[in-house]
Amino acid sequence: MAHKVSMTVNGVTRESEVEPRTLLVHHIREGLGLTGTHIGCDTSQCGACTIIMNGKAVKSCTVLAVQADGADIMTIEGLAKDGQLHPIQEGFWEEHGLQCGFCTPGMIMSAYDLLQRNASPSEAEIRHAIDGNLCRCTGYQHIVKSIQWAANKMASAPAGDD
Amino acid sequence: MAVTKLFGASIKRREDPRLMTGRANFTDDVRLPGMTSMAVLRSPHAHAKIVSIDTSAAKAMPGVVAVYTGADLIDDLAPVPCAWLVPNANLVIPEYRAVATDRVRFVGDAVAVVVAEDRYLAQDAADKIEVEYDVLPAVVDQEAATQDGAPQLYDNVPNNIAFHWELGGGDIDAAFADADVTISKRIVNQRLIPNPMETRGAVAAYNPGSGELTLWVTTQNPHVHRLLIALTTSTPESQVRIIAGDVGGGFGCKIPTYAGEMIACAIAKRLGRPVRWQEDRRENFVTTTHGRDHITQLEVAAKNDGTVTGIRVKTYASMGAHLSTAGPGVPTWLYALMLPGPYTIKNFHADVYGVLTNNTATDAYRGAGRPEATYLLERAMDLVARELKMDPVAVRSKNLVPAGEFPYTSAAGLLYDSGNYQGALAKALEVIDYAGFRAEQAKAREEGRLLGIGFSTYVEVCGLAPSAAAGAMGFQGGLWESAIVRFHPTGKVTVFTGTNSHGQGHKTTFAQVVADELGVPFEDVDIVHGDTQMVPMGMGTYGSRSLAVGGAAIVSASRMVVEKARTIAAHLMEVGVDDVTFDSGTFYVTGAPDKVKTIQEVALASYLAWNMPEGVTPGLEATYFYDPSNNVYPFGTHVCVVEVDKDTGQVAFKRYVAIDDVGYVVNPMIVDGQVHGGITQGLAQAVYESAVYDEAGQLLTGSLMDYAIPKAAMLPWFEVDRTETPSPTNVMGIKGAGETGTIASTPAVANAILDALAPYGVDHIDMPLTPQKIWRLIHEQKG
Q1: What ipTM was estimated for this complex?
Q2: Quick check: B739 contacting A, CB < 8 Å?
């Protein structure tokens, strides 16, 4: 039986009907058509589906769409504003933080969550913060540098554009 | 205006903005009108007869479009193909059907297929299919599988030996007869699971009107897929279109043509509706090919001065339950040819059994055969050093091919193109401060701390060529690459390449090269790959070949374009062709500085074609198929420093230094990224990853909860640097960079841990070197 849900996704209110069992990640990808959020596993290990829900990073494969009723959600599609890349995206570009790009949306969301909590994380803190996001291409070194780059950029020009 | 030379510049990747903003187009992102979802019911048993299948309940479910068994599809699909027919090996290719008909041979073998209006419904219906199995004994140990009385997978493959192959050079028996010391060691190179972050998927669409079959598929080689899909689905190759879109990592496991996409194609043709299929991770673990999985008896012959005179291996390679597309080539040619490595070892012999076992098929995984050879050889160097009480660096120095001897013919008959192996080793020793480390290690040992250092002085072979060699090795394809370089009338350039990036950044690197060659702005060069309707022919991306073969093809096509443009420019400027020079996008006339034509002006003139030279056709483009005369041979030295905690067995990485030589480098930032990722996968084999099966053939490490892909906090900071020895083989002087890290790092890490454990007298532990294994060893030694 379908349930009505309403959620704010990237600043836009989206009302839909979903099955109770529908995972939030499936709702985002299939129902809302936002395919930037990826699915990399079925055990909540890989973090490819990480989104920001009510201000915190969550793995959208571990949330039912009905649980997100009323939530404020940001997906990777909502991070760049007015054609301007977010400093984290700039950092990933500058420091070659991605290769195939499949883990990248989730990785960036986790980095966003970290930098909200900790504006100048150490290397160890960055590695710990992205421990729930698997990347098979980079060996993480350039991802660490990307997040450091973003932290520096955000510190030098505090952004109010989240 | 002079154009800045882009070769050698760390240009930011033009791929990235799309990928970072959610605008990528991976296979599972494809949406088509009327699209159905496919779910595959898979065998829970490693070996069983199918007694009966009842699909009636599934078929009756709302939203279910169709249900098929193997019997239903038997006429739609030829067997899943194997395309590496290794000669002189008594090779038998057992018949492997995309959907099993009477027998399943590995957990994950397809038994039935459901197509429904969405994925949830398809999965629900698959769960309603009743299959009765008669379970048979299984075998997953490839050595045991060859013994009389072992379970037999196929009636026509006695003792499960799909092939038996030998390769040798020199006089191996004499080497052992004349040796001062010999070493014999049983060494296991464990099975690994590639696990690209994007699982495999396919969307198949058939147009009954035109007869065109379009397949979006996660592949490293769209044209190979086109050929094999055409052959297996009885569709004319001219009517098969493969679109790779964005591919989320491959590492070799997206080379093969698999049952999954074949089934999707067959059903799309039957239904006339698009069929979408995407593995979940659990399916990926059991149906996408694995790598490595060798059991080897290694024998080494050496002289007292450290000269290694012979390497002999007897290897049992697990091929899994069938022979995958390139499977037989991996533990044969790609492995044994590199057993002499970077050393002047004159005698070697490889005796390889390719064995069928009740588990997932093996095929290329990053390095594919070369990591297996390099691991044995670099372990051998340390074993010889231990035996002769020599420094492992001294043993390596003693045996490395001297810098002045290139091109060098190895004992396996390969012509190593160029090298300075000692140069890379010397640089690594300097960066790591080797003497300083040994002093620190001695002090640490006095304090009861276990520090260790491990070396890997490697050479690898990549950019495999020429095609004639492929033929001699039984590979059913060429090893050339194609390129089309096309000017548009506006001066913009489109380049079509048959290689297919799945994270390597071809759209950036190739555009750098082309911008230099044509003297046009980087922004004006567009690179197209991954769509067989756009790119007529190609062989794909694997074996670190894309730049060395595909890039070199593009350079040659670019130069052909410039030559045609020179002819047209000379005509337009009313001078002889020999009087026209080309520099950075402009044609100049010798002795007439006011006469110039830009290549963009010539491009426009070539398409207007109002005033062409006699016999010159309109348009400005060139096609070139490049078939290199030889392979390329990257090399280097990797050094790892570890500290082992003797109370817990935990390994802490203190330093990791990689000095690689991949020839000239187009984009250093991208090469660094390749090296980091490569090291990570090789390091992970040494200490983290292993595919573990139980005796019944169940994969115990069948999820990301159980299979240890490294996380960010599990890795050291990599200190990466290079030497540059150009390859004489191709026009750019480049080698390959995709696999060096993986090939080099596994033995560097293992050697470091075993060096740390030297006080306990242990000289080998099979990988992965987990804390538990190390702890047990330390505590067993204590008694």
Answers
A1: 0.97
A2: no
